[in-house]
Fold these 2 entries.
Entry 1:
Amino acid sequence: MRKTFASGLIALLPAIFAPAAFAQEADTAPTVELPAATVSKVMTAAVDSFIRPGYDAFQTSAEDMTATMKTLCAAPSQANYDAAKTGFGKLAANWAHIEIVRTGPVIEQNRFERILFYPDRKSTGLKQVQAVLAKSDETATDPKTLATKSVATQGLGALEYLLFGTGSDTLVTGNDFRCRYSAAVAENVGNVAAEISGIWDAPDGIQKAWEQPGADNPAFRTGSEAITGLLGILVHGAEAVRDQRIETFYKGADKAKFPKQALFWRSENTWPMVKANLDGLSALLTTSGMVELLPEKDRVIVAATEEKLKSMSTLASGMTPDLEKAVEDSADRKKLDTLLADGKDVIAKLNDGYGGAIGLSSGFSFADGD
Amino acid sequence: MTWYGETIDRRAFLKAAGIGFAAALSPCSLHALERADAVYASGCRAPDGSFGIATVSERGEIIDRVALPARAHGMAFSSATGRTVAFARRPGTFAMVFDPSRQAEPIMITAPEGRHFYGHGHFSPDGSVLYASENDFDGNRGMIGLYDGRNGFRRIGEFDAHGIGTHDMTVSDDGALLVIANGGIETHPDFGRTKLNLDRMEPSLVMLDAISGALIQKHAMPSSLSKLSTRHLDIAENGRIWFACQWEGARNENPPLAGWFSEGEDIALLSLPDETTARLANYVGAIAVNRRENIVGLTSPIGGASVMLDARTGLVLAEESVREAAGVAPAAHGIAVSSYDGNFNGTHSDVAWDQHIIRIK
């Protein structure tokens, strides 16, 4: 017998309380109290000085990229093609800066995947973009219809292949379809960015919920919840850089290496992306003023984390851009090993150091009960 | 070293994990194990950041420790064979089988290619089959892996869990039914622990035939509760299946956080008093039933609370503030409660107890 129960059959039992068979203990929950004014100040700074400007900058760079692509389509030339490639690098870096925020509207309605479909171990995106090119599918040249297609065909991964992949040199002499498809991708990314910006900019929406934790708040009921959420951005962001962006192609000198699994290896934007991720983490940690929530004796944790993030950023900017060469070069491998070790250190500093200092006794990640 | 789809022996495990495993319990630990009226097991983290499993007396004193290569989550115990299993926390790929009395060497099970463990599992009543909740991450579907408890925990099959984000699962006392909590949340190891579908979750509770894997009944949450992740389970004396939930919706809503169902019946959601719901912070991390006393225990690490319910009526019997409340398990009287900050039944140890505890004696 197989039964699938309809949702309408679910019974809601009445609110009930036992008679005094057991004594009710009405003690106060010993949760960590963080000063409400400082929490609000930190959350406001995080939203107004990092998150909203980050999405605004990303939206602007996508609009610039759209204009650059349209210029190239109207007047194919080496100079305009070079401008498009440069524009892609700026757009990607602006995304990487704010990409560390993996919460809120960006993870709803597939927005994150529409901007960047990665990792893509089965090269789904490559195959689908190649299919669009092979068929000269006109629906891919209109941002409205492109938005309804596979997420792998409408974001930065697709745009990178169109500008840097096989056949991209035809954009110099004029490849009308490829160029218009590229312009539509840029415009589509800009549209998604505008949606996210709009949601964060609405005064009574997520912005207010993040800035003013409270009993009737849909995001955070307490200051502790809000700061834990903010810390989560940093911990998960640092984990993503190390585990998803570097370890995807390099896990150690004695392990197999997969340089062509790296994000944006074709355009040699792998390291600019890593650097922008790290700089984003650094900027959020600093501009939010999270340090103010720590007792004086623990503030060294933030300074040490900022210092480590900066040294990692410097290291990333000095890596050999060609990843196939980088993973074979002993000096670069040493830098990669340092980045992995430092990444682990940053995660520990945020997770255990900052997390412990605000009252999560066993650290941020451990407190996620699952 | 690749561990996919195989079990590895003690030597390979030790080499891979870089940890020690004494051949036998120390006389002191053996004595403590024998004289304890109740013994529990739980995952834990040591102050140096290393992970392991500890066996603990009813007074919360640590009897023995076994090192693990990474963090564990839920556990399973067979009273028929004495074997205990610690499952890796998602998206981990190991499950370690050990004998708390150390009369058999540990076995490390690894998830097959394309699967990872979700952190929970359960033995068949005779201990011959270990069921484990798993993620077919490229297929985005929950699975129940079957491992041969009498033959080195070799993988012998799998069942479709008929849902996504499969988490806890249990087995009916007669071994005929598998009961599964599908949390409804899509995850993929490429994205770590990121929840990928919070705006289109599909939580459900499922009952399968334990022999054939055939679907017997499935309860999907109504659309108004589509963000109510059904995650943990335990079975009461009368066969009633209690479940506990985590709310992924707006924080200022007061959804039901627990409920029950039985074979052939629809689910009943428990409407707790508002102050109890608030105390649980929309997040129940663990549930356990004391069958002898008909008590259901719930904990919330976010709310810092434990709540005891009458298993027959759902009445709230007691609430207590427990900072970073973690696991619950039936005690001689009432429910044993552990915490992330090292407390277990009133005793503090220099470890962080993980989210689940299981009674093994």
Entry 2:
Amino acid sequence: MNDHRSVSIVMIEDDEGHARLIEKNIRRAGILNDITHFTDGTSALDYLFNASEGPALNGPALVLLDLNLPDMSGTDILARIKSGPASLKRTPVVVLTTTDDKVEIQRCYDLGCNVYITKPVNYESFAQAIRQLGLFLSVIQVPDPEQA
Amino acid sequence: MIASRIKRFGVGEGLANRFLVTCMALGFASVIIAVVAAAWMTTRTQELSRWVSHTYEVEIAITQALNGVEQAEATRRGYLLTGQEIYRTTYVQAATKVQPALWRVHWLSRDNPEQQRNLAALRRELNDLQRVRNASVALMAAGDRPAAVRLFADETGARRMRRIRDRAGAMVTAERVLLDRRREEQAASLRAFYVTLGIAGVLLVLSALASLATVLRYTSDLGTSRDQLQSLNDSLETLVAERTEDLTRANEEIQRFAYIVSHDLRSPLVNVMGFTAELDAATSAIGELIDRAEERAPDIVTDEARFAAREDLPEAIGFIRTSTQKMDRLINAILKLSREGRRVLLRETVDVAALADGIAASLQHRLDEQGTTITVQRPMPEMTTDRLALEQILSNLIENAVKYLQPGRPGRIVVRGSAWAGRTIIEVEDNGRGISAHDHQRIFDLFRRSGQQDQPGEGIGLAHVRALAYRLGGTIDVRSEFGQGSTFRLSLPTVMNEEAR
């Protein structure tokens, strides 16, 4: 039941700065899992669906998703993940974005997003939010794809 | 354009009206003339007819008198010839008939001096004749037949008789002439009557036709103008609908624009603030390093390095921080406005006075500190509008009044309302520092403020108020004298339009 392979984090974030800040704060929260970073939706989807070590074919993963991407909307990616193969469908998705529009948040939850976090401009709040995410990651039970 | 058209219709209407009235008047006048003429003509014809019958009566009376004379002559001759008594009695009978007939003629022709003269002559002749006749008859009656016959033979009877006939004939002829003249007059009068009737009839028909034409033209004009008005109205409605749609689209565009811009501006700001925090953390690490280096090897620490770590870096980071924080506030303000513009408004009955009281109560602590009073005047109208939006407007206005008071003067703030013609006017009046005239419009713009900048704020409140007032279908303006106080006047529809956005 217990899988010892560590959960890999897939971060889809077009802003390099944001990505770096997120990563730093995750590390500070004591999370040492692998982080794979994509700056556009196309390559991220390609990785999620087709890569040999990607969540669709392989190990457990968690997706950190920004909604404002240059080539496609984050909600599209979310919809694709949640309508993909079973192993991918069960992958938890954390939406981490600047948009705090109620309708947008609701839509993400409707599409199957597991956690929605608004990026606060205030850095302390930001770091706090990421640390909470780290706590969340440490307790999350990632399902074993082989038992699906 | 519309006004000129209406004006043109008005003039046309006036002309048509005048023409119509003239025609009607003409028509009625001709009818009245025809009636009067007919009455007059009838009277005149009757009179003439009477005169004609009068003439006949005169003629008959003359003939009767003449008949009497002739009959008397015939019976006298019979008496003289036969001596029979029956002739004498018949003679007396005939002779007595003459005088009444003559009197009748005299009475009938009393207005005609010529006939009177003729009659007088006739009467003389007849009297002479009568005298001779009576004498002869008397002689005969006395039995002196030869004397009577002699008297008969001697008398100028035959000649006199002819004269009498001629005289009577002349009188009859005179009456005939009169008769002809009167007949002619009668015919002429009848002709005049018919001509008058004909002219009146023609006038009547003409005026009726003209009236009909005018009415028809007027009606068709009315129809045309109604159609034009209708089409104008339709096109106006279409125009309004188009404009409204354009405005709605533009408004939506602006909302979307504001939303996207504020979000996309936020994204780099996250980086600036995040990495500034990183820099800050790094600075404190470097500061510690400098501290330790000064302790252990003061010779390697230059003044420059010390200064940079302890002064320059914290100062730079401090400025970056305050600037980004301000920028964050501004972006949030735009975001708030944009979000406010997208919020769905809810109609409900709002007690404005209670709302104002609530706002005043929430500021009570501050009012007590300053010694400021807020008076909510009653009665205050009720409104059907979006409660939240109205509350935000009023609280912004009242808070501003409290915020910008004249130092050293106890604040007196009055909130009053009135309803007029479907609109509710709410005024918030203060005796504060006032706003100089050239800033009266400017203060409603985003990020613009007026007067001494001694109070915190970003210049968002009134912009927000104006945006909300517009959304509720209203307007806001200010009357203010610098140093005396300001009155903000909010005009809103008492019942918010269902389609307000």
